[in-house]
Design a protein that fits this description.
heterodimer; A: Sulfate adenylyltransferase; seven-stranded mixed beta sheet; B: alpha+beta; two-stranded antiparallel ribbon; about 20% strand; binds zinc ion
């Protein structure tokens, strides 16, 4: 079955699954080893997470993305997806336009890269356009400045699909597989919940809010009969980690536990992930997330306060406002805007700042407090943090985090990666 | 009384019951949605000794004036000592126990 992805274009899938064919195709190609970020982006490109892109972007598309938030052909695009390389490497690997190389990861073949463009691009223009700043303290700007001398553009074909390590193997789906899954579930509408968090009740309510807003005017009969036609997809972002983040295993297992322990019904809630290194580009990253989730086949996307922001570079609702500037026909996913949920002692429940009027009594979900509670292993009231979620976080700390549910240097050095590339 | 610098111990229902038995429940403060905290006081001299004894711990001198990031088992031990000794001023005994 053919699926339509972002920009109304055919969903990209450039993957060779036949081993013999793959071995044939890579014969005689020069091997170019890549770091984790480029490997994950090559994988995402090949499976169509970044449809309609078929490979790393060429200069004209990067330029158009920076200047017009669109590819040359007019498709909305907000963050350049590039392959950086040093001048020395270009010489060493004999890279020329019109040739192909074999990208390898951790010594094993990964993908064929057809070189169509070799170029440089001004980093300040890029940073200002994508991040709204040239401040090198911004992690996205820093990444842009750290890229090597030149960029290569051209098509990617995956010839050795990644193997996912437990527990990630249970949650990995390609864009096509996402769509097939939604089809099996009979979901007519699906709303994305973007996350890098272990959920507390505030997050849970954001998802409930998003589900209700998404379901909106549709019939409730099927839901009452036990086969909902609107679903919530928790799509976790798995990528570069920073010390102090929750470990990936804890994020994915606790999100799924909301379904497993009945806080959401089986027919309503599902968890998967996307490989992506956060750029913290605020509004521009919100658009990028919307594009990815369009390709996964979602119809709606939830955006909360400070979506994908960092520091004080963006206003709390900048990531909402940017969608007003994009013509409806250009983005085939409906944004669902949500506000903060918190605990109100007067109401005696978790409620929404848009509804409750006991402002003076409000107790917000403070990240510092939640983190401290988790570190001390003192089980909080179930109203604010589900006991099963709490137990899983502690289990994950022991099993995957070297005793800590938060990323430590030890986890960065020795923790299990989400995926590996085996010999072909 | 001189200013003190607390170590905040989280108190859930289970711990609250133990404090009630020890007659110390009213020393707790409301923190978040029914979760309480027990501020175990330190003098500045005790703060210095605690931070020296547990190098990962930090004294937040700027905002909260509390000792943060103590390992879980250390905070568990402090709570247990409060309950077993039936008083909140236990840091001198705690530090002595650890030879500090
Ligand atoms: Zn209220």
């Amino acid at each position: 079955m053919e699926f339509i992805g972002h920009g109304g274009k055919k969903l990209v899938e450039r993957v060779v699954t036949d081993k013999k064919e793959a071995l044939n195709k890579i014969k005689g190609l020069k091997a170019v080893p890549v770091r984790r970020q480029l490997a994950t982006e090559a994988i995402s490109l090949a499976y169509g997470f970044f449809s309609p892109l078929e490979g790393f972007m060429k200069k004209n598309d990067v330029d158009s993305t920076c200047k017009n938030m669109a590819l040359v052909d007019g498709t909305v695009w907000s963050i350049p997806i590039v392959f950086d390389i040093s001048d020395q490497e270009i010489v060493d690997y004999g890279i020329k336009v019109g040739t192909s190389v074999l990208l390898t990861y951790e010594g094993n073949p990964l993908a064929i890269f057809e070189i169509e463009d070799i170029y440089a691009y001004d980093r300040d223009t890029w940073s200002q356009a994508v991040y709204g700043t040239t401040d090198s303290k911004h992690p996205g700007v820093k990444r842009t400045l750290d890229y090597k001398d030149k960029f290569l553009g051209g098509k990617i074909t995956l010839i050795n699909p990644p193997k996912f390590n437990p527990p990630f193997d249970q949650y990995w789906l390609t864009p096509k597989q996402h769509r097939e899954k939604f089809g099996q579930k009979g979901w007519k509408r699906v709303v994305a919940h973007q996350t890098r968090n272990v959920p507390h009740s505030g997050h849970e309510w954001l998802m409930k809010h998003a589900w209700m807003a998404t379901h909106a005017e549709m019939s409730m009969e099927e839901t009452e009969e036990g086969h909902a036609i609107t679903g919530v997809l928790v799509n976790a972002i798995i990528g570069e980690k920073r010390a102090g983040d929750y470990i990936d295993q804890a994020i994915i297992l606790t999100q799924d536990a909301l379904r497993k322990y009945g806080y959401f019904r089986d027919d309503v809630h599902m968890t998967s992930f996307t490989l992506w290194d956060m750029r913290y580009a605020g509004p521009k990253e919100a658009v990028h997330h919307a594009i990815i989730r369009t390709n996964l086949g979602l119809t709606h996307h939830m955006f909360g306060r400070d979506h994908a922001g960092v520091g004080t570079y963006y206003g709390s609702y900048d990531a909402h406002r940017i969608f007003n500037k994009i013509p409806k026909e250009k983005l085939n996913i409906t944004p669902i805007f949500v506000v903060e949920w918190l605990y109100c002692p007067h109401c005696g429940e978790v409620t929404c700042i848009g509804l409750c009027n006991h402002k003076k009594e409000w107790q917000g979900f403070s990240g510092t407090v939640i983190r401290s509670i988790i570190m001390d292993g003192v089980k909080p009231p179930r109203l604010i943090f589900r006991p099963e979620i709490f137990d899983i976080v502690q289990e994950c700390a022991e099993k995957y985090g070297f005793g800590s549910p938060f990323v430590t240097q030890e986890y960065l050095d020795k923790g299990t990666q989400a995926f590996r590339i085996d010999p072909l | 009384m001189a200013e003190t610098y607390p170590i905040n111990i989280w108190i859930n229902e289970e711990r609250y019951a133990k404090l009630q038995k020890a007659g110390l429940a009213e020393l707790t403060q409301d923190a978040f949605a029914g979760l309480k905290k027990l501020p175990v006081p330190n003098t500045m001299n005790q703060v210095d000794r605690v931070v020296k004894l547990f190098p990962k711990a930090k004294f937040d001198s700027a905002t909260t004036k509390t000792i943060e990031l103590l390992p879980k088992d250390v905070k568990d031990d402090i709570f247990d000592m409060v309950v077993s000794m039936g008083k909140i001023d236990i840091m001198e005994e705690f530090l002595k126990k650890h030879g500090a």
